[in-house]
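2 proteins. here.
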Amino acid sequence: MDQIPHVLACDVGSSAVHLAHVQGETVGPMQTVRTSELASLGGKLAKLWQDIPSPKKLVAGSVNAAAMKSLKAAADELLHEPVLVVGQDLPLPMDIDLDEPAAVGTDRLCCAVAAFDRLGAACVVADFGTAVTIDCVSNEGVFLGGAIMPGLAMGAESLNTGTDRLPRVKLSRPAWVFGKNTQQAIVGGLVCGARGALRELTEAYATELGHWPAVILTGGDAKLICPDPSTCQLVQAVVPDLAVRGIAIAYYKTLLKNDE
């Protein structure tokens, strides 16, 4: 490529759409539109697009069909620009060792390819969002699969709605070991349980790989799991914009392949 194109990368998730301007390894500030507020998506999309120089492309990864439909409609009406969708218009960005490769969420793959692109070695990629996904990539850059669990907010909601007396809680970083009331017990259980799942799965992946992989976190609740990677023996980095980086990489990989 003579010039690295600019990409407006759109991570269309279960509960929010994240937008960011990406050029190579440079990522601008991320903007977020909740799926309950999609009426504001077009305005933010148009403003970002206007501020991005040419050449530029609009690229998306999606696990939410309804929100993706809104994004495409806004892009068509306001930008007159097609949306290139990872896994549809663009090939999946990495090799996959799964029973049904086409069924894996593109958000998981985009996070995985962004982490591997930076590290160049086996890694665990954990996304603490609406759902929690903890996946593994091999030294050869192959997506090996992983685990999916309810997200922390989903767990908190289910404890409230699925029981008679457990309250709705606000998630926070536990500053205690022993929960001295019901709220503390629930928050501690959810956050520490997620930390435990991350450690257990990472140890299992390390056993299969034969060595300990780097661990990268992303997602809205990642800071609850690891507030400071410099003081955490398990986690090497928390990267909030990992998915939009991977979405842009999926486009760049396609360009490079077409240039060969």
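next one coming up
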Amino acid sequence: MTTATFRFYAGLNDFLPGHRRQRALICQLHDRPAVKDPIEALGVPHTEVGLVVANGAPVDFSYQVASGDRIAVYPEFTSINPGDAGRLRPLPPEAFILDVHLGRLARRLRLLGIDASYRNDLDDHEIARRGATEQRIVLTRDRKLLCHGVIVHGAWLRATDPERQVVEVLARFSPRLSPFSRCLACNGTLSEPEAADVAMRLPASVRESGVRVSHCGDCDRVYWPGTHHARLQERVRRYLQQIDG
């Protein structure tokens, strides 16, 4: 039997029951497990962990816990670079995959030009597999999904409102933004088509106005600035303002 002390810091306490938060946890472990196993057994998905320190030295998830160890577990900090010795995973990509409950968030991320893959017919195993093979960050409100071992990058969203979820994603990952450059329906990249190719699909008022038209090569949808465009622009401005704040 192995006895070790674990202490979780900052936002990682969100995953612990109230009586275990902000305090040292003495754990009885069988044999000498890799440190990743007791961390997740205590309720914290490995994707939320940015740094593990054993007895004062940074370690990776394969570190085998020994009796008497004092393990400090920290979340991802965007302002702190742990260096190569303390890095648990590569730097995150700028592409995302969202679970089946986050369709409204997916459309908002696409509005900002963020690569946000979403389908409402994927189970957890397929989301985890695609997140790993396509090098995407898994976004979810399901903590258990993030415990799939193949997932390298992921985040459990604290907010339930999609507007607040957008700000949460932007603040944590700081992806590059290119508003109005992606298809809201399928996530494809928009381009400017030849006028003759889409002319017959546009209302006469749009054809005569000379406004910029965008086309999705993946699903063949056509976009132009309609009456709702100003509202979407205001939404983008609001997101950016909240991040700046």
